[in-house]
Specification:
The structure holds 2 protein chains of 2 kinds.
Chain A (H helix, E strand, L loop, with lengths): L2 E4 L9 E7 L6 E2 L4 E6 L4 E5 L4 E6 L5 E5 L3 E6 L24 H6 L32 E5 H15 L3 E5 L15 H5 L4 E3 L4 H13 L3 E5 L10 H9 L1 H4 L9 E5 L15 H5 L5 E3 L4 H13 L4 E5 L7 E5 L12 E4 L4 E5 L3 H14 L4 E5 L2 E3 L3 H11 L2 E8 L4 H12 L9 E5 L8 H7 L3 H11 L4
Helix pairs in contact in A: 2-8, 4-5, 9-13, 10-11
Chain B lengths: L2 E4 L10 H26 L14 H9 L6 E4 L4 H6 L4 H8 L23 E4 L5 H16 L5 E6 L6 H12 L4 E7 L2 E2 L2 E2 H4 L16 E5 L3 H16 L5 E6 L17 H10 L2 H11 L5 H24 L17
The chains are: A alpha/beta, B alpha/beta.
Chain lengths: 467, 334
């Protein structure tokens, strides 16, 4: 019986990768544990070890092949006594064509709400937004991932201002745990791209002290889950000192990193802190969705004289969007964006939930419901004017967020809308949010817990009394 | 790596007359200021938490004497004397204690939260140990700017058990930041004696595993403090990294104004006051060294009392902040 060597998943969110190099050739004997190949993803280069022993019968994927799907067969090993020459390649094509993912992967991916384990959600990113006053028509666009947009924002601000520096765990030599800081060390050197020990409380406090003393730190948390170790400095030291000092002690600092659910990493690595930070006066809180906003708002955050919590999302780092190819793309903090105009129901969302809200709007449109999608972008200060104006037009609202609902962003928006547009409402506001439990690990339970497109569709229909 | 006790002060050269008189005056100012703050608290003019520095005056006075203009200071919540040592105006400090418009934070900070960019005083922090990480960041910025300045972070024996102190020690030595950690060991973290809270009670050794030198210093002798500080400041300014000074000192008053004082005996407090008072010690040296007469010192005493009385008056007369101040200073308007 021959053994198929499959393309391994090297991270919870990896869908495909490049087979960079074979370290074996056909006819070689391999033992379990031998390094047989090197694989690259957009985040990392990793070695692949053999998990079985045998003789290499065939290498099915050539070196340098890009887009090899996770779980596709990449080589065949002959077991003892088999003739490698008689073995045949499996039917599934390995490279980046329209091949069906192997059954196992497909099963995991059979949820539109958890695209990270299978096909990406198909969002027509090229479609023009319903309204975006910041982009002049005819502006050239450049396709950029959210990850690179964030990196470009930091690099541009570092070139512009010598006092801007980046610090955090693995930001320099490792090139970023999620590759957001890739290349910064090469350009700016170790003085300005500082690898820290695993010391969130300490380096957050150190960053705040450096900001008090004239620098503009960009402090990366590998994820915001770890920032709970540092939250005392974010709130007590960074957010409150200006007020406590009667306006003397500004703290120009950005705390940034991925926030919210990743994929199958369990409860401690999967929390959405939007509502926590948005609760605190003295902070600005930004949670962008697409690459243009990620870049424009991160540049604005770095220039802002106040402490800014910048919430990114691991599951959209790799998504590609158009970014205006202009000299200095900076967006205003505190402005929501109407991503799709509609007349029947307003859907608010931020960060990754915006993608689901846009998908939901597509589905609703097919059923005759015209949804207006508002990307909040900034959670503090919250652009309630845009939301209230929209509700006065649509008379209905669904507030979607990835985090827990109790005391959440949606609860705040529902309260504001109820207070400021009560007479316009034709239905009580409805919230869409994570189930009120720590995020479970099991694939099916995780899917049940996290909100997605279907939940938004259902909520929108409910406020429209459509079902 | 030297972690050693250095309580002997006889070997070094004695301070001159002007220096001793300045110490005397500065320490007396702190003492009288704090006594007045205690009174105003009793009268209901100062509210909330109010932590008095009485007994510890030699520490901040001696350290400050070794610093240069532009060096930074940061401390915890027992901070009034640190501000006076930095040259901040007693009126502004006292008016902050009374929560008035004329206070350094315009009444919004209170006893624990005052700052002065001009005097390079960075607070005034209420979370025990936070100032250690923040102070390390001040030093990080100094090194980044290559400005040859140093930062001094003061903290107590209680804060010395906070985790972030060691996170900061690690980074400070890893990057050889110009920071001096001054541990004001006044023997009690609120009501908990050092030996009841610390497995290693010699706090100057706490940097040993990071390679940070430390010294124990008689924190009741301002001259000993200054000599130790000069060495530590030079070490940091020369690019050799952080230095730890453990100041053995004592606070006469309670942890804050509401202290039951059940954790130590009256005799213990009286013994220190009678035999180890930092101001009495300098007074003795001034008189015995024939640098000043009793009359001259009384004259200083009078001057200081006047300044403090004026500060108290200012703090009473200054109006409460205007209600419109409620929403100012939340964010810097870009």
């Amino acid at each position: 019986m021959s053994i198929e060597v499959l393309m391994p998943a090297l991270s919870p969110t990896m869908e495909e990768g490049t087979l960079a190099k074979w370290l074996i050739k056909e006819g070689d004997s391999v033992e379990s544990g031998d390094v047989i190949a090197e694989i690259e993803t957009d985040k990392a280069t990793m070695e692949v070890e053999a998990v079985e022993e045998g003789v290499v019968a065939k290498l099915l994927v050539a070196e340098g092949t890009e887009g090899v799907k996770v779980n596709a067969a990449i080589a065949i090993l002959a077991e003892d006594g088999e003739d490698p020459a008689n073995l045949e390649a499996p039917k599934a094509a390995p490279s980046n064509d329209k091949a069906e993912p192997v059954a196992e992967a497909e099963e995991d991916a059979a949820t539109e709400d958890a695209p990270e384990t299978g096909e990406p959600v198909v969002i027509d990113h090229a479609a023009p937004d319903a309204s975006d006053p910041e982009i002049a028509s005819g502006t050239a666009m450049k396709e950029t991932t959210v990850r690179d947009a964030l990196r470009d924002a930091m690099a541009e601000e570092m070139r512009r201002d010598d006092t801007v520096f980046v610090m955090g765990e693995e930001v320099a030599e490792y090139q970023g745990a999620y590759k957001v800081t890739r290349g910064l060390l090469d350009e700016f050197g170790p003085k300005r791209v500082v690898d820290t020990p695993i010391t969130e409380h300490g380096f957050a406090g150190l960053g705040v002290g450096a900001a008090f003393n004239g620098l503009k730190p960009v402090v990366e948390f590998m994820t915001f889950n770890f920032a709970m170790q540092a939250i005392d400095h974010i709130i007590n030291s960074a957010a409150k000192t200006l007020y406590m000092s009667g306006g003397q002690m500004g703290c120009p600092i950005v705390f940034r990193g991925p926030n919210g659910a990743a994929s199958r990493v369990g409860a401690q690595h999967s929390q959405d802190y939007s509502a926590w930070y948005a609760n605190v006066p003295g902070l600005k809180v930004i949670a962008p969705y697409d690459a243009a906003d990620a870049k424009g708002l991160l540049k604005a955050a770095i220039r802002d004289p106040n402490p800014v919590v910048f919430l990114e999302h691991e599951l959209i780092y790799g998504e590609t969007f158009d970014v205006p190819d202009v000299e200095d793309w900076v967006l205003p903090i505190g402005k929501a964006k109407v991503r799709r105009e509609g007349t029947d129901v307003t859907i608010t969302a931020h960060s990754r939930m915006v993608g689901f809200a846009l998908e939901a709007a597509d589905i609703l449109a097919q059923e005759g419901i015209s949804a207006e999608v508002i990307d909040l972008r900034t959670l503090r200060p919250l652009d309630t004017d845009t939301v209230v104006q929209s509700v006065k037009k649509t008379n209905r609202i669904v507030c979607a967020e990835e985090g827990w609902g109790r005391m959440g962003v949606g609860a705040e928006i529902a309260a504001v809308v109820t207070a400021e547009a009560f007479d316009y409402l034709d239905a009580p506001p409805v919230r869409v949010h994570q189930e009120d439990v720590p995020l479970p690990y099991a694939g099916n339970l995780e899917k049940l817990s996290l909100p997605g497109t279907a939940d938004i569709v259902k909520a929108a229909k409910a406020v429209c009394y459509a079902e | 790596m030297a972690a050693k006790r250095n309580t002997k002060s006889s070997a070094a050269k004695a301070a001159g007359k002007d220096e001793l008189l300045k110490y005397y005056r500065d320490m007396l100012m702190m003492r009288r200021f704090e006594e007045k703050a205690g009174q105003l608290y009793g009268m209901g003019l100062i509210a909330g938490f109010c932590h008095l520095y009485i007994g510890q005056e030699a520490v901040v006075t001696g350290i400050q004497a070794a610093m240069e203009e532009g060096d930074q200071v940061i401390t915890g919540y027992r901070d009034h004397a640190h501000m006076l040592a930095c040259g901040m105006d007693p009126n502004g400090v006292m008016a902050e204690l009374t929560g008035r418009e004329g206070g350094y934070s315009r009444g919004k900070g209170g006893s624990m939260h005052m700052f002065s960019r001009e005097k390079q005083f960075y607070g005034g922090h209420g979370i025990v140990g936070a100032q250690v990480a923040l102070g390390t960041g001040l030093a990080f910025a100094d090194r980044y700017k290559d400005n040859k300045k140093v930062a001094v972070a003061y903290f107590g024996d209680g804060a010395a058990n906070q985790g972030q102190v060691y996170e900061s020690f690690n980074m400070a030595k890893l990057w050889d930041l110009p920071v001096i950690y001054v541990i004001e060991n006044n023997q009690y973290a609120m009501g908990t004696a050092v030996k009841r809270a610390s497995s290693e009670t010699h706090l100057y050794k706490r940097g040993a595993s990071f390679g940070i030198p430390g010294e124990e210093v008689d924190g009741m002798d301002v001259e000993a403090v200054k000599r130790a500080a000069e060495k530590a400041v030079k070490h940091a300014r020369d690019g050799k990294g952080p230095f730890i000074l453990e100041m053995k000192t004592y606070r006469y008053r309670g942890h804050s104004m509401s202290d039951p004082a059940k954790y130590r005996t009256r005799e213990e407090v009286d013994d220190i006051r009678s035999h180890h008072d930092p101001i009495d010690l300098i007074k003795k040296r001034l008189i015995e060294g024939k640098h000043a007469s009793e009359e001259e010192l009384k004259e200083i005493d009078k001057e200081v009392k006047k300044i403090v009385a004026d500060a108290a008056q200012f703090a009473k007369d200054s109006p409460e902040p205007d209600p419109s101040e409620l929403y100012t200073d939340v964010l810097v308007e870009a």
